[in-house]
Amino acid sequence: MAQKVLTLGEVFEWDSNDIEESRFRDISLLFAEFMGGGDPRIIPFDLFHEMTGVFRRYLRNQSTSVSEFKKYSDRIPSFFARAKKKQWAPDQLLSEGWQDFVQKVKQELREAKEKRPEKRGKEKRYLDLVRFFCRKHLEPNDIRHADLRAWVDDCVIKDYRGYLSAREAAWAFEHHLLDQGFIEVNPKLAKRRKKFSISLDEFPKGTILKEEVEALLKYRMAPPKTWSLQDNEGADLDDDEDPRDSSSQTGEHEDVELSKRRQSRAYTASRLEDIICRLYGFTQNDADHRMEMPTLEDLFTEAVFKKYKKFLVEEREVTARSVFNTFQALIGAARQYRRLGRRAWHEEFEKLLDRETLDEERKRRRKRACLSFDDLEEIPDQIDKKIQKIRERKPSKLTEGFFSGERIEFQVARLEMQKFLMIWMLALAWPSRNLCECRVDPQNSGKVRDPNLFYEAVDEKALPWVYLTDSARESYANGGKVWQFRFSEEETSGCGPVHWALPDVLIEPLKAYLDHRGKLKEFAKDKDADTLFLNTQGRSIQQTTLDHLFIEITLKYRGKRISPQVFRDNWAFEYLLLHEDQFDDLAPMLWHQDSRRTEALYGNKPMRRPTSEHG
To answer: Which residues constitute the domain of residue 143?
Structure first.
């Protein structure tokens, strides 16, 4: 016999004038409002149990003081006690499939805690998803990755959770499902779960492979002023080899591509290290067919690359785009390094890689540019409304806590940064790398570093190359200072140096934001962070964190996931709507050196990639 579903209206006397009963009634009415309206008396108490955590968050965000928040939140435990007197118990309505799933997850977590007692985990998050999907009448074998993604989006849009919190909960839940054999939730992930990468620290000691990889990474990160011809002479020769006998004369090797050498950032070098570690891990992955790799040259061979490509495509089902990017990074690093250099087989191997055509890339960019520019322009005002709501809170006398004066100031400063980030991108749409790395403070850890964003007179030597607004040109003519930004060739991704006067529309928002940025640094763990945008710890923001921040902002305020690159696509398409076919003007705004590339990515005519390798 099916168990009776207890409702909120059955937990207490709805029409009673008793003070405690009226508090329960007020909580029920607030919960119904939180859930979108309706009669609270018919809401299942299990739903209240499922949503208690996010309901507390809602009460906290809607309250203007600690006393207002505690007036309701402190009564919630009594509400549960009253329900238990009515024979209610947590999760008693879960199906047998979900009860079995929960028991196995609990056992897994107990065993994991015994192995690593020092590790603190948020163990009960999976129960939120169990209750949600059970309420939707879905069993464990019904869940798909798209369902989890939709759950994450819903959490952020309704402000139940932050994006990272929801994403981590969904990720852990997905792995619990895979652990119990529910592979259909994500068949591709099921194939990729077995890790094969070997970290650089774990490379074999009896070889020079580790030292050679470290030397390659160091070479890639070396600043141009330290480069010398000796680094590159005889790139394809052993130390005891005569240049006249070089195998390059037989066509087996060719010279290092000196003209294409560029200094790699630490982030880029870290990615290259990760790719090499995975390549080496692949060669050691199969115990029965393990390959001996004593040197870097043994690892960077055509035979190894072909086997690795087959492994990625057939066994791991990695996308063609990711496979292409993997080998592009490896071959690009080899061609610019004296111990490896260009090989005759590189070009033939590259022909084996599936590459996205320009038409396909353009279609992909148009498809993912899923928000109109009008929608994006509304975001700063929406954030500002939230800021005003927070400013209405009455600071408590406590020095810590959600309602403390410092916490309120910090929340306002964080939202002001998000608002300014959107205003900035609506005006300039920078690459995400430069959003992360733009320096505004002249000092970092006591070392002077020239800021990228500064308020100074325009350097006459730079004048022929700097983009000046009308007001900046007038200031320059009168000998005044101008807000401007400048990035060297090493600080941009293949587009050469960039130097612009700041658009007028950004000057006042920038001045206002810099005051709030000072507040963020007051609460920061890293007082020396010199970048324009900061993370929650007050440190320089990383690219992954920036991506997550963009997704959270656009999901919360416009209901769609938008990354910084997609934002740029939206920006470019909007510009072309207003200025049809003006690719020569759009190219420098997107930091493209060649307007033909801009037209290829954002125009309407079918295009073909240049036949030259690096065109």
So the answer is: 96-192
